[in-house]
Known about the structure:
Distance between the termini: 48 Å
CATH architecture of the largest domain: 3-Layer(aba) Sandwich
Bound molecules: the ligand Nc1ncnc2c1ncn2[C@@H]1O[C@H](COS(=O)(=O)NC(=O)C[C@H](N)c2cccc(Br)c2)[C@@H](O)[C@H]1O
Largest sheet: 6 strands, mixed
Number of domains: 3
Helix content: 25-40%
CATH topology of the largest domain: Rossmann fold
Shape: globular
Domain AMP-binding enzyme C-terminal: 434-509
Protein name: Amino acid adenylation domain-containing protein
Pfam families: AMP-binding, AMP-binding_C
Domain AMP-dependent synthetase/ligase: 21-375
GO molecular function, one term: phosphopantetheine binding
Strand content: 25-35%
Amino acid sequence: MTDAVGRFPADTLDQFVLGPAARTPDKPAVIERAGGALVTVTYGELARAVDARAAALAEAGVGTGDRVVIESQTSAAAIALLLACSRLGAAFVPVDPDTPDLRVRAIVEATDPVLHIRPAGRPARELPSTTAVAEFSPDGLVAPAGKPRQRRRRAVVGTDPAYLIFTSGTTGQPKGVVLSHHAALAFYRGAQRFPVVAADDVVASTSPLAFDVSLFDLGVTLGSGATLAPVPREFLSFPRRLLGFLRDAGATVVHGVPSLWRPLLRHEPDDLAALDRLRGILFAGENFPLAELRRLRELHPGLRVVNAFGATETVACSFAEVPDPLPADAERLSIGDGYPGAELLLVDSDGSVVDAPGAVGEIHVRCPSLFSGYWDDPAATRQVLVPDPLEPRSGQLVYRSGDLAYRGADGELYFCGRTDSMVKIRGNRIELGEVERRLLDHPTVGAAVAVAAPAADGEPSLHAFVVPRQGATVGAAELVERCRRTMPAYMVPARFHFLTELPLTANGKANRTALAELARAAR
Ligand SMILES: Nc1ncnc2c1ncn2[C@@H]1O[C@H](COS(=O)(=O)NC(=O)C[C@H](N)c2cccc(Br)c2)[C@@H](O)[C@H]1O
């Protein structure tokens, strides 16, 4: 693979991503579906689009130190907008267009963006009128003229925020994870050294733009001079369309959460096996069920499988090649031992570093891709950006991940659980506490506990156990409505169970294990 590291010394996202454009302007950067056909955008065209968007955004008053909210899925037009923000020194905040108004309002109020950009033609949102709203399409940006403001900062520096990712927060307010250019590029360069992507790859990207795997896909793919093929979101639930797109785009690698493969394995195994250009996959966000991974390998002998592990707070922290063949007795996959440039420490509950094989500890990540902190929340930041437990007096910081793991005999780590109540549903991060707070906000709810339990098809799903307030009656329909209006779809419980009282543990806490059993039994 052409090693883009060092060849284009870059300290901002746009410089890193457009580096290859100088060398291979006619190479396809993005292959995407537009108007029912496949369209190719070259690196030169993308670079010119970034210039045009940067001029339009500057006209709209966007400059160093601002935030720009961008509602979109991955596309060449959206990428041009993100990179234009980076060039102007504004942090972009990618938001899923399907996010409910109340949650977008929370993000807009928290970040006070100078501009809120939405895809042309979407229905208006109920938002405070203080924020300027712009519309974009492949042909450009329609933005209100901005009030030119006195800029105290001119140049962008690598430690400035490149993007904010809002994720579920236990307090009920979404948490903004702030990544600097330096952190994002340090991770992307670590991925290049692994290596994840080769310059002749066509990388099919399947994550929402608001999920940092998609930013990784575009960053590493374009930064390495390869081609990005963003998969239309609606194809993910239509196996034949998805396979058709992968075939027509000539995808050599597919990145995404493990659950994206389930419908293909179940409904179109033959067409999946016929994808003769497919040579690798990268999965992130949650464990890959081993039975499904074996099945995928049967259909594609020799397929390279990379397990990409980690939290948005360090972009991720480790890559591991999944062995081929997968040992018959394998119970779980290794997550590796840190990406090139990162170091993973295991710390047990009394704070001492453990490294005896098999000893479980909480992963602490020492790496150059540490996030800058949670937006406007120094207390929550201090909880997870902590002194290096090996050298507490060194001034070195590590990310306390909340992930439990043990070291195998081969020195690689195996993820085996969480220290808190974060769960993943189809790779989406959910703090159960946030779901419970939303339910408890309802006046007729006396107690509420949310648990994740595997449904019949193995897919984890969210269950809510609700105890109505004394004498009140509460209906699932109104609870669902409240959840739908305040949280992304993936956080709306799939099943509601109404109890007269909660099962309790010996020390009087809700017995989540018993409730998870009830959830499993109820499927
Ligand atoms: N590969 C795995 N196997 C199993 N459990 C995983 C994996 N990757 C995460 N997780 C879990 O998800 C948590 C974090 O969730 S997150 O903040 O939403 N981030 C994510 O999921 C995605 C994460 N940023 C990421 C991962 C890889 C590449 C890129 Br680029 C980005 C981790 O702390 C783990 O508990």
